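Support reply, case 0932

Customer input (verbatim):
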Amino acid sequence: MNRLFWVFIKGMMMGIADLVPGVSGGTIAFITEIYEELIDSISKLRPAALKTLYKEGFKTFWSAINGSFLSAVFGGILFSVFSFSYLISWLYQNQQVGLFAFFFGILISSFFFLKNSISRWKISHLLTLVLGAVGAFVLTQLAPTTNQVSDTYLFFCGFIAISAMLLPGLSGSYLLLVLGVYPLVLESLRGFVSLVSNFDQKLLLLYGSRLALLALGIIAGLLLFSRFLKWLLSRYKNHTMAALLGLMLGASHKIWPWQIATVFELGTTSKTQTHAVWPQNFDGNPQLIIAIICFILGVGMLVVLEKIRQNKSTHEHH
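Our regenerated output:
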């Protein structure tokens, strides 16, 4: 029960991260060392599991898919998504420097812990890391656009976003921004939550249908992409870990606290591109003190999590 509580907390952290464009829930899973178990457990959600449910009963089925672990992770994610969507939206709009500094502190400090997951670095591992970093950098250079959102397109966005969320360094929320549906998704989440106190049947149908289509895309992405990642981790673990570390580093510029946005028009399409700048070149108050405090808090949180993990590992060996 104690372990599941911490898994739930880690799921909450993933959910909060996934709400912020530029921050990856997969990074949090990687940092908190539930990544491999998460990928392995998701990959077990296949038709064969339903046969186990039918032939051997719910208890065997639940154990086979690691159901308690998955419930704790996704319970934490869903709790955060619906509970913190207002807060994260407000922080993203009003305190972006502090918010990004906090996550930047988590990401940078985590790299120094996670690089030890590869016991002996080889040239091929370093090359894989560089390729991952370059790939993440190129992907995060894509400029967000505004599109007419169809049902099929929303499903596609869910599929792509969850695939990114499973990869450390690639933000599902950022890709939703790139694909032009992030404001729509955030509006639907906030609107759906607000129906608890102000019910409206038409709005329930509107927000519910949007979220359902996105959820279907997410489920499809989870089932297909997780199996591919499991195969990579089982066959080429060190190279996969190096690539994942590269993805984290390559995308880190997107959560650098000081960003400048450039809006430009391409025909009837509006695009916005952001790029990192030094504090002195920031358009507005750089809030250096707030950024430093939030960065230290992010680093401190990682150090505490690492200490907890080490103590737990020591107790288990004794």
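We compared this against your earlier run and they match. Two observations from our side: The two ends are 20 Å apart (CA to CA). The longest helix spans residues 201-235. Please reopen the case if you see a mismatch on your end.
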